């Protein structure tokens, strides 16, 4: 029997996080059969790490699954971990949760990462997967990195820096956003127009959707070889590298938004 958790996306992960308030559970491995997936087990774990006032950064590094983040009104870093062990003799993941100087670190690794990392397959399958639901307090900068996993950030007030390779990246928040993915879809929903640093959205082939806070003093510039869509009246201008650029301004134009894509489509929608 194939587990639905193999395709766990951030929305499903948060449903699990919010609905699961009991003790961690463990599922037995399924027997392998011809043409069937390898045996696997799923375990749910919850942990908290108290954060001292000296912490100015929260770093989440998970090359082995998805990450979903939301705000909590407590000085702690809370985690809900969905751990999948795959194979008859699964490799055990290491999920580190610690304070390193002024940074709270949540990191997922396997011992064999030095020999291929998240892309190393065992008999055609991933060696395991760890999906993270993370609860962060207001204040510290939030840094997130994944490879194939999705990222979902739900309306946090913190500044954020997010990097992923092919996972879908969706972020909503009041702080500064620095978001980049190679081929994944990128969606950004700023909930204010007051950022300490310019907003930066970047993809290679991934499409971009931005909800523009049009009532704010916005200076927007966007570049791509793909299409520009949405209700804005834009006049694309050719660039020397073959891409086209559009610009849009409102008010004093003090809040900068920069969108840079090689070939992804860019869709701009209004938010008032």
From TrEMBL:
Signal peptide span: 1-19
What are the UniProt keywords, alphabetically?
Answer: Signal
* PROSITE patterns in the cross-refs: PROKAR_LIPOPROTEIN (PS51257)
Protein's UniProt keywords contain Signal? yes
| Protein name in UniProt | DUF4097 domain-containing protein
């Amino acid at each position: 029997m194939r587990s639905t958790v193999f395709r766990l996306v951030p929305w499903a992960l948060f449903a699990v996080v919010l609905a699961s308030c009991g003790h961690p559970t463990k599922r037995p491995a399924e027997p392998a059969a011809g043409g069937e997936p390898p045996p696997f087990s799923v375990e749910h774990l919850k942990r908290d790490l108290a954060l001292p006032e000296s912490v100015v950064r929260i770093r989440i590094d998970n090359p082995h699954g998805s990450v979903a983040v939301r705000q909590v009104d407590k000085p702690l870093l809370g985690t809900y971990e969905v751990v999948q062990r795959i194979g008859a003799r699964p490799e055990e993941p290491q999920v580190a949760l610690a304070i390193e100087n002024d940074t709270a670190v949540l990191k997922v690794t396997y011992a064999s990462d030095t020999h291929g990392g998240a892309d190393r397959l065992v008999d055609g399958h991933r060696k395991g997967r760890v999906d993270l639901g993370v609860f962060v307090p207001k204040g510290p900068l939030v840094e997130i990195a994944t490879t194939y996993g999705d990222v979902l950030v739900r309306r946090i007030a913190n500044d954020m820096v997010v990097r992923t390779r092919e996972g879908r990246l969706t972020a909503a928040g009041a702080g500064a956003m620095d978001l980049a993915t190679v081929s994944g879809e990128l969606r950004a929903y700023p909930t204010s127009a007051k950022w300490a640093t310019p907003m930066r959205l970047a993809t290679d082939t991934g499409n971009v959707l931005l909800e523009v806070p049009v009532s704010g003093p916005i200076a927007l510039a966007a570049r791509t070889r793909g299409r520009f869509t949405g209700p804005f009246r834009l006049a694309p201008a050719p660039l020397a590298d073959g891409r086209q650029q559009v610009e849009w301004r409102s008010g004093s134009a003090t809040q900068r938004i920069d969108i840079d894509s090689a070939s992804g489509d860019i869709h701009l929608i209004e938010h008032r």
